[in-house]
Amino acid sequence: MDFGRSGFEIDEILLSQGIAAELPALRHITFILSIGTIAPDIDRLIAGFRQLDRGNSASATFSPPFLVPPAPLTPRSAFFAPRTAVSFADAIDRISAETVCPYPPGIPLLIPGEPITREAIDYLQQVIAAGGVVTGCDRSSLQVVSLS
After folding, report:
1. For residue 113, what is the domain's CATH number?
2. Residue 63 reports pLDDT greater than 60
3. Global pTM?
4. How far is it, in rounded angstroms, from Cα 121 to Cα 144?
5. Which domain holds residue 128?
6. What is the 3-state secondary structure (H, E, C) of 6-67?
7. Cα 79 to Cα 76: distance, rounded to the nearest angstrom
8. Minimal CA–CA distance to 81: which of 97, 67, 59, 65?
9. Are 141 and 91 in the same domain?
């Protein structure tokens, strides 16, 4: 179903109704049904979805997944290279000196030695704006390899 919201937004709305998701993310939200789940729990989840469906018909737009270009440096070389912190905008076309990992899903978006693309920065900013957690960097800057 497309509710026109991020998984983080849906999680906040449903949590206020006593419905806890297992894993919200930018483009999806995961729920787990177990042996302890009872019919009223499922009814409450369905009612929450119906309320979401009535509340918003717009479709959220997020950057599509993107391909990672070849890395100009090995992770080891980039990790031990001199580095400097730059804004997200200034990081585009530079080489990452750190592992940047949005959660969820917990898969690195950037690793040392990889070029930082506009698509990666756009995705990172979307995750942060939607309420996601990003490990490995500041919320407004990245460590990049200093090539002087």
Report:
1. 3.90.105.10
2. no
3. 0.64
4. 13
5. 75-145
6. CHHHHHHHHHCCCCCCCEECCCCEECCCCCCCCHHHHHHHHHHHHHHHHHCCCCCCCCCCCC
7. 5
8. 97
9. yes
The 10s digit of each residue's pLDDT in 92-139 is 999 999 999 988 778 899 999 999 999 999 988 888 888 888 888 887
Using CA atoms, how far apart are residues 70 and 117, in angstroms rounded to an integer?
Answer: 11
Burial state string for 72-109 with b = 16 or more CB within 10 A and e = fewer than 16: ebeeeebbebebebbebeebbebbbbbbbbbebeeeeb
Report the C-alpha gap between 19 and 42 in whole angstroms: 10
* Cross-strand pairs, 110: 100
The pair of structure tokens assigned to 38 is 């009872």
Here the tokens at position 33 are: 């049904």
Identify the CA nearest to 2 among candidates 42, 59, 50: 59
In a domain, 136, yes or no: yes
| Residue 1 belongs to a domain | no
46: in domain = yes
Q: Looking at the structure, do residues 88 and 126 belong to the same domain, yes or no?
A: yes
The tally of domains found in the chain comes to 2
List pLDDT tens digits, range 26-61: 778 899 999 999 999 999 999 998 888 766 655 555
